[in-house]
Fold each of these.
Amino acid sequence: MGERKVYQKIKKDLSQAQIKIGRDQLFSILKANKMLIRKSVRHIHTTNSRHWYKKHPNLIREMVPESPNQLWVSDITYLQKERGFMYLSLITDAYSRKIVGYYIGDTLEASNTIKALRMALENTPNLMGGLIHHSDRGMQYCCYAYVKLLQDHNIKISMTEKGDPLENAIAERVNGILKQEYLDYKEVYDNQKLKEVIDYYNNERPHMSCNMLTPNDAHQKTGKLNRTWKNYYKNNNLVKQYQD
């Protein structure tokens, strides 16, 4: 995880051991030992929006959820293997940043995204009304089977409209966290192995967008969560959502 999260988790132990070290000094130590997170570059696209399925409007402009299960965001990302790719479908609660559903497969078939959605629904059996599901306009999310599953559970459907990643910023950010911090390059994952990674992410990684709570802890809260990052883009609400 990033340096600020590491510092948050170890500063109590440092104090008990009477070790005086600030965040900037920790950053320098990590940098000198090549232990900072390296940003990845996106090489391939997983979204095909050139299809004849119905595309739904964006319902979440300037929306800031104030409790769990008000807004789920979904996306697909790729993991590179020695030969070819694997494709990871994720569903994340926008309030708590908790991953509530996932599935990894060798193809971009809609059946994989449906399996991720079914997991999210099984993990949240007592859904209240008003939940919005937000995604890009890829055919996996627009196909009849996926839309019907959402409608059967009275979930409102929202989609990006301009193809800008910032329209689905939270989902994109969670993709990046998993790939940069937890998923080893070219290692082959199955859903059991992925479960260990996501359990660690949900239970151990504090989020600056959730008052430095882990996603599972934040998922037990309601009301506005304090953001612990500085906003350098006051006039861009989409950039605000992109922080972690």
Amino acid sequence: MAKPAPSAVYDPVAKALHWLIALAVIGMLAVGWIMVGLPNGPEKFALFQWHKSIGITVLLLALVRLAWRLKHPAPLLPSTMPGWEKFAAHAGHFLLYALMIGMPLVGWVVVSTSPLNLPTMFYGFFQWPHLPVLSTLENRKEINDLAAWAHGVAAWIFVALIVGHAAAAWKHHLINRDNVLLRMMPKALTGFLNRLRGQK
């Protein structure tokens, strides 16, 4: 079966997944930074549960989005974009996918090797299991330290990529005046976004 040709804009499912993941990632990062500054206690434990639950949600949604993307190609980038900029755009998307999937997995390793052995309650509905074997390893403390460090570094990289991703989209909209931003936006916002750059 021939691979479907890219359309001019992302389809509704891709748009919905994009914005759901975006909101979840921002929420995950915000809760993560708030909770690390709190003293140990019920409030910190509750925020940890929210952070872990949102992280699992990001992982699951990212896997769904990746599967959808493989069957539904992304719209082509403008032909006027220079080669280096297209490369940067593809590299940025690859890194975002890697973090959307990799960062929750590393967090799962942190939880599974923690000496505290605290449960993960998925939004309070059921207990999410630890990764098998990891909690029984003799060197789990070293694994936990390394995974926790990687998780923290990944958070800062994630922030940098998100800011760069958003800045690039707005640069294309306001300076290049192409459709890069519009192809991921809900159709209802098209008129408003065009007026922002002086178009009717």
Amino acid sequence: MPPAVPEPSAVPRPRVEGEREEEILTAALQLLGLVGYDKLTMDAIASAARASKATLYRRWSSKAELVIEALNQMRARHEKPLADTGSLRTDLIAAACDAGGVTDEFGLSVLGNIVTAIQHDKEFATAFRSQFVAERAARQRSIFERAIARGEVPADIDIDCVVNVLPAVCLLQAFVMGEDVTPQTVAEVVDTVVMPAVLHQAHRTRSHKK
């Protein structure tokens, strides 16, 4: 009697990993930059990566999951450890002007291509905020926490109030005003908005303690 042939569902599926995974994620990022998230399809990614759509779905359950992982790959590839300059002001400027910061043209172009998805695709928006934005916010917050640790600013300043000011102003300038975000732009926002707000909070904190 010939041996039983395993059912299709019992046949082990090959894993998508290593260089093959990176090729697919890179293809997804390139297409995202060309057509935007809304027009991006798993078929197009599979074609660009010379893979089957079934191969993609063996690794990622949805387009949203694949794109979020591609964004995280981009961040891991380009992002450097935060500079420790000894100053809150220069730490903020260094982080914003580094790869992955608000002056990074490629990063801004990718973000511009997912803005509508954040508004209209609940699955993508939830994943983007929890898996990508949360890490970026924690990174930005750590700059202020480091300033507190070295005694530059009081421990009870409201970090939540100031942590997103710099990226918010710069992204408004880029996407709403249509203006370039340069290192000079970053320095101006830090000097005229962020640092005065921090110093005002520090002054108010000290005044309340008297």
